[in-house]
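note to self: dont lose this again. the chain is below, predicted strucutre after it. 199 aa total, dont forget to put it in the shared folder this time
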Amino acid sequence: MGWDDTFDAAAASGGREEPIELVGTNLRMTGTVSLGRFGRLTDLINASSGYLRIRDALLLHRNGDPTDLKLPELMVDQDEISFIAQTQAPAPEVGAATGFIEPVDDTTVEHRKAREFVIFTPGHMISGKVYVFGQTDLAGFVDSTDPRFVPVVDVTTRSLADRGIVSHYDFVLVNRTQMIAAAETSRQGDIAAETSPEL
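---
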């Protein structure tokens, strides 16, 4: 599914606008995206391919300071996006699909648990919690191709070019095609709750 059928439909349906920060190896910006018929950012991004339509795009310096370049609309190739972040992730709309997360009553390995990972992209080190099945090992996590953008919560990012540039986000979608390395830092974690943001 390309941007022309997904994002034009989103604009036409008057969906909720959500603020995002988009980061690539050599690109950093803020802006908004229209969710259209989707209830969550995760669903929109993982249901589409091609170019992502960013409205009110403000280009940022590498350290996150704003530049003087602001564009009313910008199309960004998803293959060039390292991650899409939200400093304060809004709760999904009522009735939105719960994605990876299902209601659980016990702690068996069949259910997803929050586990700490560190993920490297060409430009950043990203650490946070990923909800994965208890049986999933590191090799299974990195070899998986679905979802294309991995939801991560309670995130800290650090620039590899300047380790003094550190950012914190409630929620990040990491592009698997930009992942160059990953490690699990803990096997501890709580059972994923149905109210976990964006998962």
